[in-house]
Write a structure and sequence with these properties.
Elements lengths: L4 H6 L20 H7 L4 H6 L1 H14 L5 E2 L6 H5 L4 E4 L2 E4 L21 H13 L6 E6 L1 H10 L8 H9 L1 H24 L4 E6 L7 H7 L1 H12 L5 E5 L16 E4 L5 H7 L5 E4 L10 H9 L2 H6 L3 E2 L12 H13 L4
């Protein structure tokens, strides 16, 4: 694809400014999405190719971001592993969370065909997108996916049942992680076959456990998923939220770019992460509640860092929050495009 500032940045080419996109940009803060939400449920929008395409591309038109990210959910993999799930007003809920059984790994009934509708969605997005707009594919990393499968809901962000399970039953946990990883690899490879040009792996709960335990139990899975992406030549962005000093393990054989949460200053991340791995993100999404002047000042403060380290993609340290003002998100995109980064 020509004329994509995001793809050029990921290839290591010179760009006059950092590319800009947002996690959770497809929905939430967009007035046009809120209108659509009055007519359709989340699951209906995600399941219908034309609706999924419309929502995926909406932030490209409404915000002016440099890429679209697939409108979907990280919990489609557990669904393909045979876990019954429903999307409620308070988030996804599994009918039979795995903590209720002694050997959770034996409860799975994998059926990869349950992911087929997402590949049809991708085909439709590719057909409908404007020229020069890359499509970012994504999925949840094994730890984050396992959190919801074991506990059944994300209402307690500390996931006490998950942490207890990891410490008391490592042998079964490894089997469960392997099952999640195998389905994830299938999912990743087929997203790429259907046309996504960039892939981001979300590990929203990477900071739930100590970095050493994360490296012991989950790093082999990260390596396997990374290999499945990288061997296709597709640029790979890894987002291990809360991993802290574990960022030192992210080398060029793992990812092209690493997305940094707001707890980790960019300069500290730059010191930890291998110099050949680019950085993305870091701005606290809650900053977008503040005034336009404060937001612009924070963006201007990024310029010296970018001039020293141009291997940087603008994003937030996590996803957009639903009540962030649309105008402030638009201001960020417009300001980034106006500023003199060079």
């Amino acid at each position: 694809m020509e004329n994509s500032i995001l793809l050029n940045k990921l290839k290591g080419l010179h760009t006059e400014r950092p590319p800009v996109w947002f996690m959770r940009q497809a929905g939430r803060v967009l007035p046009n999405y809120q209108k659509l939400k009055k007519e359709y449920t989340f699951h209906e929008m995600m399941s219908d190719p034309e609706l999924a395409s419309k929502v995926t591309l909406m932030p490209v038109y409404d915000l002016g971001v440099d890429a679209a990210i697939l409108f979907s959910d990280i919990l489609v993999v557990p669904d393909a592993l045979g876990m019954e799930m429903s999307f409620t007003g308070k988030g996804p809920v599994f009918e039979n969370p795995l903590f209720r059984t002694d050997e959770p790994s034996k409860m799975l009934k994998p059926d990869a065909s349950r992911l087929g509708y997402i590949f049809r969605n991708i085909d439709t997005i590719i057909r409908n997108r404007p020229p020069g707009t890359p499509l970012i594919g994504f999925c949840g990393a094994p730890l984050t996916v396992l959190c919801y499968m074991v506990q059944g809901t994300g209402r307690d962000p500390n996931f006490p049942d998950v942490v207890k399970y990891l410490y008391t039953n490592k042998s079964d946990a490894r089997i469960l992680i392997e099952n999640i990883t195998e389905m994830t690899v299938f999912y990743v490879q087929n997203q790429i076959k259907h046309g996504v040009e960039v892939f981001q792996l979300f590990d929203t709960h990477a900071g739930l456990i100590p970095a050493d335990l994360y490296h012991e139990l989950f790093w082999p899975a990260i390596q396997k998923i990374s290999m499945a992406i990288r061997e296709t030549g597709t640029p790979f962005i890894f987002f291990p939220k809360g991993l802290g000093t574990g960022l030192k393990h992210i080398t060029p054989d793992i990812a092209d770019f690493v997305s940094v949460d707001w707890q980790m200053p960019l300069r500290h991340a730059r010191e930890l992460v291998h110099p050949d791995v680019g950085l993305q993100g870091n701005m606290d999404p809650r900053l977008l509640y503040s005034t336009g002047e404060e937001i612009e000042s924070a963006l201007e403060a990024l310029v010296p860092f970018y001039r020293e380290h141009p291997d940087y993609i603008f994003n937030l340290g996590h996803g957009l929050l639903p009540d962030i003002p649309f105008d402030n998100v638009k201001l960020v995109v417009d300001k980034i495009k106006r500023m003199n980064w060079e």
